[in-house]
Design a protein that fits this description.
The structure holds 2 protein chains of 2 kinds.
Chain A lengths: L6 H10 L2 H6 L8 E6 L3 E7 L11 H7 L3 E8 L3 E7 L13 H19 L3 E7 L3 E8 L4 H10 L10 H10 L5 E6 L5 H13 L3 E8 L1 H4 L7 E5 L5 E4 L1 H25 L3 E6 L4 H15 L1
Parallel strand pairs in A: 4-5, 4-7, 7-8, 8-11
Antiparallel strand pairs in A: 1-3, 2-3, 5-6, 9-10
Helix pairs in contact in A: 1-4, 1-10, 4-5, 7-9
Chain B lengths: L1 E2 L12 H9 L7 E3 L12 H4 L5 H18 L2 E6 L8 E7 L9 H15 L5 E7 L3 E3 L7 H9 L10 H15 L3 E7 L19 E7 L7 E8 L3 E3 L4 E10 L4 E9 L2 E10 L4 E9 L4 E9 L10 E9 L2 E7 L5 H14 L3 E7 L13 E5 L6 H12 L3 E5 L17 E6 L10 E4 L19 E5 L5 E6 L4 E8 L2 E6 L16 H13 L7 E3 L3 E3 L11 E3 L9 H6 L2 E3 L4 E6 L5 E7 L12 H7 L20 E5 L1 H28 L2
Parallel strand pairs in B: 4-5, 4-7, 7-8, 10-16, 17-18, 17-19, 19-20, 20-26, 27-32
Antiparallel strand pairs in B: 1-3, 3-33, 5-6, 9-11, 11-14, 12-13, 12-15, 15-16, 21-23, 22-24, 24-25, 25-26, 28-30, 29-31, 31-32
Helix pairs in contact in B: 3-12, 4-5, 7-9
Classes of the chains: A alpha/beta, B alpha/beta.
């Protein structure tokens, strides 16, 4: 399990963390603060009484000292709920170097789990899917949850094809509370179809984040000669030329990334591209920095 | 340019293999896995465009490698003139000065023609003169000096040796290995048929030697000669010797020849004999009476042919008192002296006087007064006699030891000095007796009696023969007759008795020539007189003792040995015909007559086809008189296969390096 808990990754996350995301929907304790005031235990400020205010909120101790009525206001604390949807289709097995996309996705999810469960004491859950729902670990804050999650990650071996519709349909049935939904996938689906499938989560009040994991050679393949490629999911073969790969393919994959980003943002989701040769903490830090800037 | 084995070019078909590997097989490489083909379009390009050759340089190296291997096996060659015009060649002039070149004006013709050839050469061309007899004699170093070459040519005198073209080819092979330049050999000879070796391969010349034949005789010339003379080398007391001579005619008609016997310059007898056409006739002179000492004799014919040098045959006869032989035996053994004396008397007539003594009476005898000593089955000798005998042997005396059952009782053989390994009684074995297995016919004791078949041995002493020469063995490999050198003398050991008990040798006919030859060998009379052939060797000393002078007087009356040679030479080669006089270290004086090898008397020449074959299809032939100074060039194939193999090696190394790089690159690719 230690491989999921790289200290350098955790150190990078602990400063910025997922705080911003949990603020959105939160009953939060610890670092997660709600942007709205509520009636929880943390004092925020005093406000002069105005007619119509609930007398239960008057601080009588202040009234005794000052003979003026002040209302005591508290900062609300929320407990957020993080659910990671991990794509375990066969295409995630692709790699051009030491770390496959699946490994990279595991690292990312594990880091999020650790941060969420150990630091924030939040509930975290995991859904592993390909074209079916393969594993579901209910979000919980119970002791040992982190290890269950990490075990679920470990047993998530890539196979079959990607299909978002079935797993998301099941996920909506399980969804009882609002939270943060992180989808980690290579998203080899049309952006329109993906957003249409994921949008219902957003409608339920969830914060949806798309982590788009790609290998650098998927973005810029290097072929020096005509080569036959085989699709890892469909086993379909295709003879491609280097010229096409350099020109047409590059344009198409760039268009796919742009379309995903645009459509995700348009749908109120967050989108981040993770390239597997980039440092993991750097990618998360970049995400958090952008997230902070949005606030 | 051509190919010696063109069918190996079929191997070039192997070039299809690398083409297949580079062009076709490579394109069937396993598909590379990819995440998704969602963004790829099926754009199959034309197969020709796709099937581009990979690694063109590697492919070309592999093709070159295969082509070069096939080419190397096909053995390419270029025709190169054997005699290069560049001038970097050696003109080797060989003059045959063998005995047959004395016929007519052959040697003078050869010398004159050689001078013409030398005069026509370019001044920058080096030349060398050699003389051909039984051996090749180098007269000059390679030089451009015409004076030195001319002087060397003019110094060549007619010799008495027998020409050997095999020896010439052998010398040329050695010279070609060391010269490293093309050699143009001009051979001036009568091309005598008898000069050819038994196998043609012995006269094959190296590739960079071109042969130009200059024949000074083209047809066989009639010639009569005294082919052989059979006369005793020694006569004793008042005996008269009988001389048998054979007169031979080579390519001659029927003719009557007068044969004369001359002793010390005096005509003793004359016979007329009719020699058939190309045949032989025998002549006998029944009573050769010579005085005491050496007599120089010759048999002469009046042939009046072109080669008068072979009309006479020389030999010497020595008249002396009989030699004394000491025969030591056991007192109980009366049989062995009887058999030995009978055999010696029958074979050598009165040449030897055998004095038989028993061991008991041998104490006071001085062996030095005897020609040789026989110890017949003697287990031990009186100490004083043994000491005297050993001194006698070391100073050049010779002893025959017969080791029978009595001698086998000792651990070692007396005088012979070696241990007895085993004593074998074959009569007790199932085989009952053993025969003689191997014999060394080159040993003088064997000589005329090469076959000892039929002689039965019932007992033999196996003596250690590590330091000795084994002359005869029994069929079970037991050494039977062994010779060992002790000092200047020899000890000859017969591993069985002379008593007709341990074997039946004494009553076998081969016993008589064995005793005669052994007696002559051990007494030294074998070499003292008679006749020899030119180029044969005379033994001057038998051991390693140096310092005692030997003197050899040649037919011209000059000392043939230098002072160093006289003090150390063990043998002397008789190079000329005539009478040689020897003064040996033991004080003896010998005289021998030396004659040229009579095969030189047959003046028949080599057939044209043999000469053409020898000349390697050049225009040179014996029937075409060689023009003076004409340089004949012949095209000779020069093999290129090893150049091709060098290129193969280079291509293989380059291919290995390049393929290693490409393979490394392929491994790095996913």
């Amino acid at each position: 399990m230690q491989r999921f808990l790289d200290p350098s990754v955790l150190a990078g996350i602990s400063g910025l963390d997922l705080v911003a995301k949990t603020v959105v929907d939160g009953f939060m304790a610890g670092l997660h603060r709600s942007p709205t005031f509520g009636f929880s235990q943390e004092f925020a400020e005093y406000r002069a009484y105005a007619p119509g205010d609930d007398l239960r909120h008057i601080d009588w101790n202040v009234f005794a000292r000052t003979e003026r009525c002040y209302l005591k206001r508290y900062r609300g604390e929320t407990n957020t709920l993080l659910t990671v949807l991990l794509d375990a289709s066969n295409s995630m097995n692709y790699t051009s170097h030491k770390v496959s996309k699946m490994d990279y996705a595991r690292f990312t999810a594990a880091s999020l789990f650790y941060l969420t469960t150990q630091t924030q004491r939040d509930a975290a859950g995991l859904i592993v899917f390909d074209d079916e729902l393969r594993n579901y670990i209910r979000p919980s804050t119970r002791q040992g949850q982190l290890y269950r999650l990490l075990s679920g990650l470990e047993h998530a071996e890539p196979r079959a094809r990607t299909d978002f519709s079935k797993p998301l349909h099941h996920f909506q049935q399980f969804l009882r509370r609002r939270g943060v939904v992180v989808i980690i996938s290579d998203f080899y689906v049309p952006p329109r179809e993906l957003i249409r499938t994921v949008e219902p989560l957003r409608f339920h009040g969830n914060e949806v984040v798309l982590f788009h994991v790609l290998d650098p050679k998927e973005i810029r393949p290097e072929l020096s000669e005509p080569t036959t490629l085989i699709d890892l999911e469909t086993s379909e073969t295709l003879e491609v030329s280097p010229e096409y790969t350099r020109n047409e393919y590059g344009k198409k994959i760039d268009a796919q990334i742009e379309a995903l980003r645009d459509r995700a943002i348009s749908a109120g989701m967050d989108y981040y591209l993770l390239v597997t040769d980039q440092p993991l903490d750097g990618a998360l830090r970049q995400y958090l920095a952008i997230r902070q800037a949005r606030r | 340019m051509g190919l010696l084995s063109p069918w190996f070019l079929a191997g070039t078909a192997a070039v299809t293999l690398p083409i297949y590997l580079h062009l076709l097989r490579r394109h069937r490489a396993d598909p590379r896995p990819f995440s998704s083909l969602m963004f790829f379009e099926r754009r199959t390009q034309s197969s020709i465009k796709h099937r581009r050759l990979r690694y063109l340089f590697l492919l070309s190296l592999r093709l070159a490698l295969l082509l070069l291997v096939a080419l190397a096996f096909a053995n390419p060659f270029i025709n190169r003139p054997a005699v290069s015009a560049a001038g970097d060649k050696l003109m080797l002039v060989a003059i045959d000065n063998s005995f047959s070149m004395r016929a007519g004006s052959r040697l003078a013709d050869a010398r004159r023609e050689a001078l013409s050839v030398l005069a026509s050469r370019r001044p920058s061309e080096r030349a060398q003169i050699i003389a051909l007899g039984s051996q090749v004699r180098v007269l000059t170093d390679p030089t451009q000096d015409p004076g030195a070459l001319r002087a060397a040519l003019e110094s060549i005198e007619p010799g008495d040796s027998r020409a050997s073209f095999g020896e010439l080819a052998h010398a040329l092979r050695s010279l070609a290995e060391s010269a490293h330049t093309p050699i143009e050999l001009h051979l001036f000879s009568d091309m005598q048929k008898s000069g050819m070796p038994s196998s043609f391969t012995e006269i094959v010349l190296p590739a960079d030697v071109s042969l130009v034949l200059h024949a000074v005789a083209r047809n066989a010339v009639p010639n009569w000669a005294v082919e052989s003379v059979d006369a005793p080398g020694q006569v004793w007391e008042q005996n008269k010797a009988v001389v048998h001579a054979v007169v031979a005619g080579y390519h001659t008609p029927v003719a009557t020849r007068t044969v004369s016997l001359v002793v010390d310059g005096k005509l003793i007898a004359t016979r007329s004999v009719e020699v058939p056409a190309g045949g032989r006739a025998a002549v006998e002179f029944p009573s050769l009476d010579v005085p005491y000492g050496f007599s120089r004799c010759e048999v002469r014919i009046d042939s009046a042919d072109s080669l008068p040098a072979d009309d006479v045959s020389l030999f010497t006869v020595e008249r002396s008192d009989p030699e004394r032989v000491l025969f030591v035996h056991e007192s109980s053994d009366h049989r062995s002296p009887l058999y030995f004396q009978a055999a010696l008397g029958a074979a050598a007539e009165k040449a030897f006087n055998l004095e038989a003594v028993t061991v008991d009476h041998a104490g006071g005898i001085q062996p030095s007064g005897y020609a040789f000593v026989v110890l017949s089955d003697v287990p031990s000798l009186p100490a004083s006699f043994e000491d005297q005998l050993l001194k006698y042997i070391r100073s050049g005396g010779n002893v025959l030891v017969a080791a029978g059952t009595s001698a086998a009782r000792e651990r070692h053989v007396t005088v012979f000095g070696e241990n007895i390994v085993d004593s074998r009684y074959y009569s007790r074995d199932g085989v009952r007796f053993l025969m003689v297995g191997d014999v060394d016919p080159s040993h003088p004791s064997i000589g005329k009696a090469e076959s000892w078949s039929g002689v039965r041995f019932y007992f033999a002493v196996h003596v250690n023969a590590d330091n000795s020469r084994i002359v005869a063995r029994l069929t079970d490999r037991t050494p039977l007759l062994i010779e060992k050198k002790v000092g200047e003398g020899r000890v000859l050991l017969l591993g069985s008795g002379l008593d007709n008990l341990t074997n039946d040798f004494p009553i076998h006919p081969v016993f008589i020539p064995f005793v005669e030859q052994t007696a002559r060998y051990l007494s030294g009379t074998e070499r003292r007189s008679g006749a020899r052939v030119v180029d044969s060797l005379l033994e001057l000393r038998s051991g390693k003792q140096q310092g005692v002078g030997v003197e050899v007087i040649d037919p011209e009356g000059r000392r043939a040995l230098s002072l160093d040679e006289a003090a150390s030479a063990e043998t002397f080669q008789l190079r000329r015909a005539g009478f040689y006089e020897l003064h040996l270290p033991n004080g003896r004086r010998d005289v021998v007559g030396v004659n040229a090898d009579r095969r030189e008397s047959d003046l028949d020449v080599m057939p044209d086809d043999v000469l053409s074959l020898w000349g390697r299809n050049t225009n040179t032939g014996p029937e075409v008189p060689s023009a003076a100074g004409q340089t004949r060039e012949q095209a000779r194939p020069y093999g290129l296969w090893w150049y091709a193999m060098l290129l193969v090696l280079a291509a293989a190394v380059a291919e290995s390096l390049l393929a290693g790089q490409y393979l490394g690159r392929l491994r790095e690719e996913p």
